[in-house]
Amino acid sequence: MKIAKVIHYYDKIGVAVVEVLKQPLKVGDTIKISGHDNEFNQTVSSLQIEHAQVKEIAKGEIVRELVPKLPFGTYVKVNQIVCMRSFKATGRARARIWSFPRIWQVALKLPPYYVIEVLSGHFDHLSDDDKTRVLIHELMHIPKNFSGALIPHRGLHKRISHGTVETLFRLYTSNI
Ligand SMILES: [Zn+2]
What we know:
Elements: E1 4-10, E2 15-20, E3 30-34, E4 39-43, E5 54-56, H1 63-66, E6 81-86, E7 95-98, H2 102-108, E8 114-119, H3 120-123, H4 128-140, H5 162-175
Parallel strand pairs: 6-8
Antiparallel strand pairs: 1-2, 3-4, 5-6, 7-8
The structure holds zinc ion.
């Protein structure tokens, strides 16, 4: 009986993000996980039920790794980047970055922050390399002065395009 659809499986830590199709799924159940080319049994040791449509994800699992290995390392403050995963998002974007304009920083007495939002339905199924590319793209929107503002796709000095993302992706993969 198919009880759930696996949206993403983190094989290193044995955690599956699933959409439950048939209730109930409970701790202690042994479930069979079938992938493209393998199948295995796993006992459900804990369950986290997602009620919210947006949730903070491990602060930059990839972002934290990416930034120091790329030119971003000199100006991107990883502690001031919050990564969010949203569910049931509309639109076709795989991710987006949100600015925090200076007027809000002054009003709320907070330093600049950025939110990188990944849209679960369009992002989770990507290969690791493509996820990295998407995050590089979003990070490229951050200006060198880390002001809270965003750089447009076609700027005066910089262009955020497939080509410029790929250049940084290559640099990253050669630095791992
Ligand atoms: Zn963009």
